[in-house]
Design brief:
Length: 273
């Protein structure tokens, strides 16, 4: 046994020495798949920017930095109104268009569902700035097959939505989405007008609709459009006009066309140049 062991050790040592020899053609950092140049793409239009709103319980005692809103806690998802208001204002000033809230399943993760729901309610209770929000719903599914099914359903919904929101002539996709939102706002204004007429026998302007509580829509503008209402006897016209400064476009690129949109007591939406 001893005679066999000695040659084996010598053979292993020789293999180790030859395997450790330097090779000039070995891979380098530039060979990495991530070693490529990312070209800078100039920004020509406003992007929609979101921020994930992180839900935590208490501050880590080891962290010495203090937020502008002060050290605060989120017991069971409860965010103090003053803190949430500051977060919304800070986000608006920073160019954030919406918050993304996690929203876990009530049937699979009840405790976190309650906490997530409370955070969203804290946001909605003080969102006077009409900041947008989205929910990242977590089904807590296990297994690759279930994940692939959810991804396929999501892709189908995305493709259908993209097709429905396809832009018209002289329009870009984001513009078509903005116009859809404006049309929805005008429809809400028209519905409030009909309700006000049923109660008072006449139509009203925007200020009256808001002050009377007939209209739940608090905004009077969206994405560069400004809303106005012209009541006249037994008719009215709610109009959305694009009043934002023209967007500076690259040389040779035509600026997008922003039509004037209106709706009247017939609940029909019209567009004009």
């Amino acid at each position: 046994m001893k005679n066999f062991k000695f040659p084996f050790i010598i053979t292993a040592a020789v293999i180790f020495l030859f395997s450790c020899t330097k090779k000039d053609n070995a891979p380098t950092a530039s060979d990495n798949i991530l070693a490529y140049t990312i070209n800078e793409i100039p920004v020509t239009t406003d992007y929609t920017v979101g921020a994930f709103y992180y839900n935590f319980g208490t501050f880590n005692a080891a962290i010495t930095e203090v937020p502008i809103a002060g050290k605060y806690t989120m017991p069971n998802g409860v965010v103090q109104p003053t803190v949430m208001t500051q977060h919304i204002q800070q986000a608006k000033r920073g160019g954030i268009d919406y918050f993304l809230f996690q929203f876990r399943s009530a049937s699979r993760d009840l405790n976190n569902y309650k906490s997530d729901s409370t955070v969203v309610k804290s946001f909605l209770d003080v969102n006077t700035a009409n900041m947008k929000f989205a929910l990242a719903y977590n089904f807590s599914m296990k297994g690759l097959i279930s994940l692939m099914i959810v991804a396929a359903i999501g892709m189908g919904i995305y493709m259908y939505t993209l097709k429905q929101a396809s832009p018209g002539n002289g329009m870009v996709a984001t513009q078509a989405i903005s116009l859809t939102g404006v049309q929805m706002d005008l429809t809400a204004i028209a519905q409030a007008e009909r309700m006000y007429f049923a109660q008072n026998g006449s139509y009203a302007d925007l200020n009256t609709l808001s002050s009377s509580g007939t209209m739940n829509l608090t905004r009077t503008s969206r994405d560069g459009y400004t809303y106005s209402v012209e009541p006249s006897g037994n008719s009215f016209t709610a109009t959305a006009r694009y009043t934002a400064p023209p967007v500076e476009m690259p040389k040779g690129v035509e600026p997008p066309h922003w039509p004037t949109i209106s709706i009247d007591q017939t609940m029909e939406i019209h567009q004009s140049n």
